[in-house]
Each structure stands twice: as C-alpha cells, then as structure tokens.
Amino acid sequence: MSIALAFAVTGKADDVPDLAVEGQPLGANVKRLVEALEYLGAPLPEEVTEKLWEAADTRDAAALQEALDPHVLFVVSINPELRVKVQRGAAKAGLQQGGFTPCVVKVLNQGTVSNRMRIVSPQSGPVYSGASLGILERQAQTELNEDENLSGDRDRFLQVEMFQSPPMTRNLSGLEVEYAIALIYSSERGKREATIGFDIGAGNQDIGFRGEVPILFDVAPAIPVRLSILDDDGSPTAARLVIRDGQGHVYPPQAKRLAPDFFFQPQIYRRDGQAVLLPPGKFTVEYSRGPEYHVDTKTLVVSSDEAGKLDLRLRRWIDPEDFGFFCGDHHIHAAGCSHYDNPTQGVQPEDMFVQVQGEGLNVGCVLTWGPCYDYQRQFFAPKAASISEPRTLLKYDLEISGFGSQALGHVCLLNLADQTYPGSEETKEKGWPTWTVPVLRWTKEQGGYTGYPHSAFDYDPPIAARHLIEKLDLDEDGVLNAAEADHELLPETFEVIDEDRNGRLSVEELTVSTDRATDRLPNVALPDMGGSGALEICVSTAEGVCDFISAMNTPRTSEWNIWYHLLNCGFPLKLSGETDFPCMSSRRVGQGRVYVQLGEVDRLEFAPWCEGLAEGRSYVSDGFAHAVEFSVNDVMPGTRDVQLSAPNKVRVQAEVAFAPETPEGVAYGNQQPLAGSRLVGDTRNLHAPRSGRRIEGGTRLVEIIMNGQVVDSKEIPADGRQHTIDLEVPVDKSSWIALRQFPQLHTNPVNVIVDVQPIRASRASALWCAEVVRLLWERRNDRIAEHERPAARASYDRAIETYEAIDWSMKYQYEPSLLSIVLTVVTAGWILHDISLHFLLDLLNPLVLLALVLALIPIVEYLFIRFLNSLHNSEDSQQAPLLKGAQWRWCVLPVTSALVLMAVLTGWPMHLRFLVSKPAFERTVAKLRHGEDIGDTPTWIGAFPVRSVMKQDDGVVYFTTGRAITVSRRDFLQTTAVATAATLGVPAVVTASKTDSQVILGEGDYKYEVVHDWPQLPDKFTWQTTHNVAVDKNGLVYVIHEGRADQPDHPSIFVFDPEGKYIRSFGNQYQGGGHGIEVREEDGEEFLYVCAYQQVKAISKLDLRGEIVWHKHAPMESGVYAEGENTNPQKVWGQDRFLPTNFAFLPDGDFFLADGYGSFYIHRYDKDGNWKSKFGGPGDGKGTFATPHGIWIDSRPGREPAVAICDRAHHTLQYLTLDGEYIETLEGYGLPANIDTYENLMLVPELHARVTILDEKNEVLARLGADVERITTEKGIRNDESQWVDGKFVHPHDACFDNEGNIFVAEWVATGRVSKLKRLG
Question: Rounded to whole angstroms, how far apart are CA atoms 1083 and 819?
Fold first, then answer.
C-alpha cells in the first residue's frame, strides 16, 4: 500500500483539537503507533517519523500532536460523562479495494476511561444472512453471523476493526490523549461514502448522532492475480487456497464472501486460469487439493503497478486411482446449515463443483433436503450434472431431513431417477412417509441406493440403566440378582458391574458400567434412540431395503458399533464415508469419504460407482489413511465370499499408507475430547480449540477385525509410503474379516463361510439389535402418522422376530451326540415295527438296516420342521422365532428323535401345543408389568402353572396339553419371579415396603414433604459447601459445590435422576470456586451456564454432559477490573475483581451475570459469552448494590418482565427494567441469596435459615423451614451436623422448582446438604 494513499494530507493540523497531556506517556504511545504502521506496511513519511522520534525523546506533547495530527483521519472525543463524538481529521480518506488500510485515530479522553474502543459502520458487516446459528456455534464460528444482513442491504462494502495487536494495546490507556489505528477494508472500488463511528460500550454516543461521521472514501482498485494451478501430473486442475497477510487477515475477508467463496471457510477454491483480487502487499498462500496432497506454501508479493501471477504445482503423496479406487462424498449440501439463504437460496451447482474438484474428490453427491427445498430441487437430474467432467462427477439426489421421516432417522437416497415421492405433488409438505422403510423401498424400486447418514446413536447411561432394571427385574426389588442379570445385554460382566460385591446390580452400578462400555468397540450399551442418526437401521436392514451405513462424521465408536452388530447377524450391510457438509463439518467437503474400487475406467459413471458402494467394494477414510489393497485368501471386499469346508486359517494381505502430515483435531484421533474416547472422530462439535497445526509422522495401529474383535494388529509408520501386511488368521466358524485403523480408516469386510453356514457371530449382537428396535418403537412411534402405524408396527415386529430367530439359532448350534444317533436308530426301529414291516427286519442284513435308518433322518427332520412351522403360524400361538437355514440340521436331529420316540412309547401324538421362547416369554412379562391388556385370547405359558415351571435355562421351553393358564398381573409376576429363582437355585425374596415418618413443611396449598440429604452421593465423593442447584426438562438435577482447590481431580458438578440416584459428575475445573449453575434451553437443546469465583473467576457454557461450549474470564472491556484479572486470576477479593455468582436469561438470547462478590456490577452478555454492557455497581440501593448475589428475570403471568436482584447485604430484593433502570425495592428478607419462579410463584432462599414463597403480587405465601433466631444467634451450626434439625434449614444458598412444582434447596453448610421438598398441596 502506498504511503500517499494512506497518509496524504488534505486539511490543516489545527483541524484536529489539542489537549494538554504529559509528554512521556504520549511519546511512548506514538512510538508504538509508528512501529505498528511500519509492521502493517504503511509507514509514515520519513521526515514525519524523525519529528515524532525527536518530540518523543524530548517529551514534547505539543510537538508530537503537531507532527502527527495531519495524518489523523478520525478524532474521537470522550467527555467526562463518557459520551463519545467523532469528527473528521486532516488525512486523506483513501482506501484500497481488497485490502485493509490503516487509518490513524486520535482519542481525546477527558473521561480517562480504559475501555476497549470499537469502530463501527452500517456499511460494515456480513453481506449474507440465514446461516444456522446453531451450526456455527457447534463449529465455534458464531462471529461470522454477528450483524447478519437480514435486510438484504447492498451497501455493505466495508469491513472495519481496530488494530489492537502488539505493539498497540487492546484497551485505551486512560491517558488524556493517545493515538490508535483503525483498519478499513473495502470490497468495492471508486468513490464510496460511508459512515464511521466509534464507541466504548453501549449507550455512550453523544446526543445528535455525533458518535459517527460520514466520509467520502476514494478506493483504489485491487490487483487481479492470475493463477496457474497444475496437478501432480502437470494437468490443469483446481486447488484449495488460504491467503493471509502478515497480520493474519484471510483474503477475501469471510464476512464479505458470496458464492463461489463460502463465508464459513477460511479457504477459497480456484481453477487453473482463474484470478483472485488482492491489494498491493505481501501474502502467504497455503495450497493443496485435499488430504491425498501435501500442503505447501508460497510467498506472494503483489505490486500496485502491474497485474500479478502465481504459479502453483500440487504434489500428491498417494493416488488411489493408481489402484482403481475412486473417492466420493455421498452427503454434501448446497443449502441449509452454514449456507446462507440470502441473497440466494443456497448456492449453485457450479459453486459446489469447484469445492468437490478442489478437494480431489471424484464424486460429490449434493443432497437436496428441507432448507431451500423448493429452490434447490430444480437442479435434480437422473444423471450426473452437465458440469461434470470425465473424472469428477456432481449428482443431485435427496436426503430426507427437515421433512417426511426425519424423526425416525435421516436417510440418503442416491442414484434416483425420480425425486418426487408418489403423492407428494413436488412438495416436501405432502405425501412423504413418516418412517423410513417406505421411502427406502421406493428408492430401491427405481434402481437407487439407500443408507443412513450421521449414524452414531446418542447414549444416556442413566436411562439405559433404568431400562435394564425395568426389563430384567422380575421380582421388582429395584436391583438385579445374578439370575435376573444372566442376559447378553448387560454392558459388562456381572462381576465387573457389581462394584460393591453385594451380589446385586443397582441402577448406579449399571449407569457407571454403561458409561464405561460406551467407550469400547464393540459394546452392547443401549442407546436412548434420540437424535437423528441411523435410528431405523435395524428395521430397514432386516427388511432388506438398506444398502449402507455412513461413517466418518459422527463419533466413530458408535458408528462402527452399530455396523458391527448388524454384520454379526449376517446382514450384508456396507460402510460408506460422508461429511454432511456444511452441517456436521463446514470446513471442507470430503472430510469423510468412500473409496470405491472400479478398476481402470476411461470415463467415470455415477451408477456403477454407487453400485460399488452398495456392494462394499470399498474402504472409508478421512483421506489421510488408505488401504489400497485388502484381501482374504485373495478375495477382495464386495466381490465374493471365501468358502471353507471346515475351520482353517486364512491369509490376510493388505497394502496400507498414512499421510506424512495429519491435521490436529478430535476428528483425526490425535486430540482427545474431554468426554472421552467415545467422541473420537466426531466432527459435529469442535471438542477442542481449533488448531491449524499439522502433526508430522508417528505410527498408526492397523488392526485386523473378525466379527468385531481384534485378532491381530501391526504398527505402521505414517510416512506417506505403502506398507505391506501379510498374516494368517484362524477361522473356526463363518465370520467377517476387515481391516481398520481407528478412527481414520475401515475397509468393508470379506465374508469367510465355513461349512456353508451363515454368519452368526454373536448372540449379544442379535439381542442388541432386537432391543434397539423395541426402544425405538417405544420412544418414537408417536412420530409415525397414525394411518402408517399398523404397517410400521408389522415391520418392527418382523425385525424383532428376525433378530430373535438369529439369537435362537446361535443358542442351539451343536452337533449330534452319540445318544441322539442311538435315539434316531431306536425311533426308526419303532416306526418300522409299528407299520408291520417287522418281517423285513428278519430279512435285511443289519448293515442294510443301518443305511435305511440313516436315510430316514432327513425325512424325519423335514416332517418336524413342517410341524413346528404349522404351530408357529397357528392363530392361537405366540410368534415364537423359528430356526432358518442350515442350523436346523444339528438342532433338530436329537429333538426329532426324542419326540418320535416319546410318541411311539406313549401310543402316538401328545397334544403338543407350541414352543415359547425366552424373548416371547419376556414380552408377556413386560406387558403385564406395565399394566398392558393382553387381550381375551388365553396366554399360553405351558402345560403347567408358572409356579411349577420344570426348567428355565437360557431359554424356557414349555409344552401344553391345551389348557390355558390365566393369572393376575401381580400373581403372574410374583410366581414367575419365584419360579425362575427356584429353578436356578437362587432364593426368592419378597420384601415389604417401608413407610418412614414424614417431615412436613408449610400448610394448605404450600405443603411439602422434606427429604434432607436427598441426593445419593457415591462414597468416593464428598461435598464442600453446596452452592446451587438446577433442574433440566427431563427432571435431572444438577448440583454444584465449591469444592477444594487442592483436589483438582474431584468433580464440582453432580447430576442426579429424579429419584436422587447419582448419574454422572464433571467440572473439576471449577474446584475451589464452584458457585452458580443454571439450565437454559436454546433452539431445543439445553445447556448449563456455570460461574465460579475464588481463584477460578470464570463463566462457562457447557452441554448437559459437561463438555465446554465456551469458557470466559473477566470482561476487561467493561473497564472495572484490575489488570491481569482475565489472564492470571488469583484468590483475591475486591471491587476491581471478578467474582461472579449467578445468571439470569433474557428473552432475546442474551443473559445477565451478577458479579455478586466482586465489582457488584450486573453484566450483559450475548449467548456466545461476548460482553455487551453493564449496570449497577456498589452503592446504597436503588440501582446500586451491596453483594448482588442472585438474579432472575421475573416474567410471571400478569407482570411486566423485569430483573429481580438479591441485594444480599442490604437484605432486600431490587427490581429493575431489562435495561437496568431502577423500579422498586422489596424489604423484609434475611440475606436473600437467589430466585426462581414457577407458574405464578417466586422462590427466595435466604441464608438466614428459611425459604420464602411469594405470589405474583410478591405477597408472602409461605416461609418454609424457618429457624432464623437460632441460626442468627448461635455460632458454628453450619459446621456441626449434630445441631441440624429435621424440617429446619441452616443456610439456604439456592433453591429451584422442578417441572412439577417440587423444590430443591442447596445449603451453604460445611459438608453440603441438598434437600427435596415434595409438593403435597
């Protein structure tokens, strides 16, 4: 940038006011300004610099101002009342298109404030609007959505900011005169008028709009830089470019981008021969073309007097096409999520194509979905888009999301010939099914391919634990004994779960076990069936209409775990890779990808690529890990099965390669998320601070997987080279074998079939799949339209029966014993004898007889199978699962022999009714336990009453002579539980309910049963001063205690279920300072807001599992805190210290924070934790405070919303408007600590030993647990539990309502106490 442009003078020096100021600090400020301008590439004229240096050395403040003021463009005056006005300075208003121009700002600071100064302009800000704030928040890019262009203003050609990096400072110094630097960017050229303003916080502009000034800028044109981009082989191509100047600015600025450049990416994409507009200056260009390429950098110097040129030659470290693999991302979007919907409804095919090409993908599937559906569907075609090239395809298809069946799981529909579902009338509002199977079947019927995206299930261990108790606890004593827990769905073995070694499994133990299990692969932890993942996949796979499950964008353990279970059941489900751009990850397409083996092709076609994906001739990867060859006995995935006549070893061979550099991040497995390994691989949330680092080298653990288990492994260096794996694996039954490197790489499997038997790898997998289907129906069937529900129910039932049949077949796989063969021979003899063929026995040689008997065996088997099938299909039988396939031979033979022998010995057929499986028996038990009607049809449970059950093993087999047993629900459950225990040799224990004496508080409508020490805190934890309590919409209770700073590994936040049972804990970062906690719902998702004082001095936003969304320290821009309070917090108190206590949430998304122990100010933030303003401060009341400890927005019915503040040391409540203007004071409280509301009630816990309930007129309705006189006159009670009285409070520090009007109270006592007040009135 030229000096003339930046600092030419048009006015006179005396146009800029002077103020008296000391020369030394002003000289230091000016020297730093001169250095900063040189750093920014816009130095002052040499003669001016010399004058400034001389004046600074002589501490001549007047000379400094005289020399520098002609180069000032803006003069900002702050009067003693902190009002701000702006006027034009003497410098020329010249800007540079495409670049940031430094402009000198003179600050006349009569208020001597040290706030942070901002520059603002209505011509600044994003040029787009409509991007999803929730998505940007997950990816920590919410700043890109600030001041979005909702009005569609076309005059946003500026980008403005203050240069506050060293050697300049972030805040004003407080000196009466100082100089600062503004950076102004223009996206347009020529004469442009703009309004420029400055502020030091909300509400400080001077009267008459003098806080801003209009200026006519002369904007010099940017320089076009022509790009030559050549691939590794020298052919022209496209590339990803990140262009930065020396200050770290990205070009073009993201807030000024419209397609083809995406504002939510730092990079841009360009093809060979295209140009980029840049200002004169020096830049660093980082370039690459996806993960198969090296990332290289070049320095670019742009001159102001000639067009620029940049030659880039890309370098591959691997080319999968050399091995016949063509990579694709089957799930990207051109609208919705991070995309804007203004000025256009998403982006065009050309914009998406350059993204696909620039990331080295061969195939990009752009899926139209809910957002902008009507606009985007115009780009659909049965074939690849016309802009496609021979080796790069773009195809528009559908994701059912945002409409239709989304509540039962999103689905990807590929290779569609028709995108209009019958009856939908080309809309998303009409005719679409509300469950996924019909739309998947419709896709298959037109030759398409189907799968589920972002597949991972969500897990809630407490819910899973309670479900296991409900399912298995036959004696209903709330725990599982060894007999009840003898089930494949236990997350771990009984011995591991039973931590207290009492022979019983509690909800708490099952919760902890499930939580551990979710970190392992595979596992049988039961999901909560929420979210939008592959919810219905266990139904659609059993129905044969699902081709693939997607991976590589959600937590890897859960993605692969679902797939493993379905493979273990023998289903040919394949794995594909996706990004769900820009919803899961907005950084680039191809974050997850699938490499499909097509061999040598001259021109890539979409349908064969999809076919290869569905057949599993592929591997999935993030692109930084590759298995370019993988085979078992020379058979590659997706081609055919390996056939073995008997158990044997197979040869596994592979060629693998790993990138020499990998980005740092949770998605790549080289950063560990706070929540543990269960989230490794996830791209939905930014689980750790964004890093631009690339990690070089290292090793990768490559594992050979058989039926979900690791059978061999090898460490491979990440050096960009191919490495060979060649080993033998023993296979003793039909199995699937694959290769993986967690979390970056997985091949599809090769099936190894032993003795023509289907793959039945795990009973636990079959039972898990069946239970997933049951849970989904239980928790989501109400989302299916009523007229579709019968068909869905039938499909779900078929799926359950299929998985139970698979389980049954594995349970009874065994070979015939000598006894069974003998029985068969005897049976055959009896049959021959009974049909009067005994004369043949005298004639036939014994050897011939033996051959005849053996020949009869398959006939007997066939007859028995037909017999059981007829029973299975009879109207009065339960739907017992039947064996299918080759398993019958060895299961049926001994049973057939025994039954026929019994029939002969007893004079022919018994009145055999049917077989009942254990799963069917359990379904009947579950129905009765829940009080469900089982209909008028008799419940056949055997030939004898349940109390006389003869045998119960892994499965129960009952025979009946036709007698129906009808029992009451209570008798049925009790007798079956006792019979089960008796059968297994475990004593049946019947316990009576215990009724303790109640402690009642209050009276009339405000009567409560109090339970002190309600939460069941595990013995390994202790409380130290319980401070606050909060409840989420599911009734989970969150308690925060202060904790001890010398116990940094101890949690400070504990979560309990509605019964007080411990669920989980986290928040050790708040130990020693834990204080405030509140739950807030934002766009349907709940978050925790936490504040901590003492040495922590921070506020945080967390998800409900404790993962940090943002974490902030003292808002230094408020101007009230001591230096270093935000960077080096210490356990120091004072009114210039940050010691926050509680939150209140505003309806516009902002929140208030009470600095109750520090400055006594109330701060206002936006929901991303950005400070906006403050009010209050120390004083005697009426808008000022002494310990504003608690805060709440009182918006009860009939009241104007207002801020209610517990002015604790004044023993009052103060009401203020939402803008901080004083309204009134309520007296008569004893150290009020916090506030909560429920319907028309307001709750005020008071440290002086009581909890007060008020109505909407703030009239007292009840004072609960009052022990004021004793607590306020006697010392030491808070530290001595022996002096605590049931029904009396000591020091209520916080109280809140739950969703049913019950109350939880946390007390400021040494060992902590949380009480539940159950509403009786």
Answer: 67
